[in-house]
Amino acid sequence: MSLPRKIGFIGTGAITDAMVRGLLAEPVAVPQVMVSLRNAETSARLAGDFPPVLVSGDNQAIVDGCDTVVLAIRPQIAEEVVRPLRFRDGQKVVSVVAATGRDALLDWIGADVRLTQAIPLPFVAGRKGVTAVFPPDPDTAALFNVLGNAVECETKAEYDLLAAASALMATYFGIMHRTTEWLAGKGLPEEKGRAYLAPLFAGLSETALSAWRDTDFIEFSREFATKGGLNEQVFKDFEENGGSRALTDALDRVLERITG
Ligand SMILES: NC(=O)c1ccc[n+]([C@@H]2O[C@H](COP(=O)([O-])OP(=O)(O)OC[C@H]3O[C@@H](n4cnc5c(N)ncnc54)[C@H](OP(=O)(O)O)[C@@H]3O)[C@@H](O)[C@H]2O)c1
Questions:
Q1: What is the model's pLDDT at position 60?
Q2: Pocket of ligand 1 contains residue 96 by CB under 6 Å
C-alpha cells in the first residue's frame, strides 16, 4: 500500500478541486500534483493556493509525468479525451467518471493499466469524504483514506448500489428546504427555519456517525420517537402516505440508470 508520488488529474473541475485541496491540506499527503489547464480558472486557483500543483495544457504530459492518473472529466466527453492518450502498462488509473463502465474505460485506455473506479464526494476537500472504490485496491484505498474513508466494493453490484445511495444528497437538502418553505408558509422567518434545521440535522447525523457499527438506523428512529409522540406520528404518516415508497422507487430508478 502506497500513496502516489506524483498524481495527475485529467479534467480540473469541481471534484478535482475538492480532491486536490484534500490531498494538499496539512499534513500534505502527496509531494506533487499535476492538473490539466481546463478549467483555466480552477487550475490557476489551485496552483496559486498550493506550490506542489503544476498545470499542463497537454493531457499526455500529465499521463507521462505521473504514476497515478485520475480521470475526472464528464462522461459525455470521456471517450474523446481518453482514447487519444497513451498509458503505460501497469500504470495506476483511477476513474471518477460517473456512469461509465470498466470495460469501456479499459477499451479507451488501450493498455494493461491498474484501473479502479471511485465515487468521491465533495467532502473529500475537508478529508471527510466517504468514497466507494471498485475493485478493491490497496493504493486507491490509501488515497481515499487520506481524504476521509474508502469503502472497497468486492463486486460491481455493491459499487452500483453505493452509487445509487450517493444520489441522495440533493434529497437530503431538499427535505430541509421543503421543511423551511413549509415553516415560512406558516409564518416562521426563513432564516430562523434554516438556523433551526441545520443543527437539528447535524445532531442526527452525528448520532448516526458515532454508533452505526452497533445500531440499525430504525433503532435510532424508534429512540427518537416517543410512544404516541410527535416524531412517531410524522414517521407513521410518512410511511403510510407513500414517503418511503417514493424513496425506494427513486432509488430503484436511479439504480436502473446506473446499471444501464
Ligand atoms: N462533482 C462531484 O461531486 C462528483 C463526484 C463524483 C464523481 N463526479 C464525476 O467526476 C467527473 C467530473 O465531475 P465535475 O463535477 O468535476 O465536473 P466539471 O466541474 O464539469 O469538471 C470537468 C472538467 O473537465 C474539463 N475538461 C473538458 N474537456 C477537457 C479536456 N479535453 N481535457 C481536460 N479537461 C477537460 C472541463 O473544463 P472546462 O470547464 O474548461 O470545460 C471541466 O473543468 C464527472 O464524470 C462526474 O460525474 C463528480
A1: 98
A2: yes
pLDDT at 23 over 80: yes
Q: For ligand 1, say whether the CB of 81 is within 6 Å of any of its atoms.
A: yes
Specify the ligand 1 atom closest to the Cα of 15.
16
The answer, yes or no, to whether residue 260 has pLDDT greater than 90, is: no
Nearest to 35 by CA among 11, 19, 60, 3: 11
Summarised one tens digit per residue, pLDDT across range 161-179 is 999 999 999 999 999 999 9
pLDDT for residue 218: 95
How far, in Å, from the CA of 96 to the mean position of ligand 1?
9
- Tell me which CATH homologous superfamily contains domain 6-154: NAD(P)-binding Rossmann-like Domain (3.40.50.720)
| Phi and psi, residue 194, nearest 5° | -65, -40
The answer to whether residue 125 scores a pLDDT higher than 80 is: yes
Task: Note the CATH architecture for domain 169-259.
Answer: Orthogonal Bundle (1.10)
Task: Output the CA 14–ligand 1 centroid distance in Å.
Answer: 7
Determine how many CB atoms are found less than 10 A away from the CB of residue 38: 17
Task: List helix spans (H) across 122-216.
Answer: 138-146, 156-166, 169-185, 190-211
- When the pLDDT of each residue in the chain is averaged and rounded to a whole number, the result is 97
Euclidean distance between CA atoms 170 and 176, whole angstroms: 10
Confirm whether 6-154 and 169-259 share one CATH topology: no
pLDDT reported for residue 99: 86
- Asked if residue 75 has its Cβ within 6 Å of ligand 1, the reply is yes
| 84 pocket-lining for ligand 1 (C-beta < 6 Å) | no
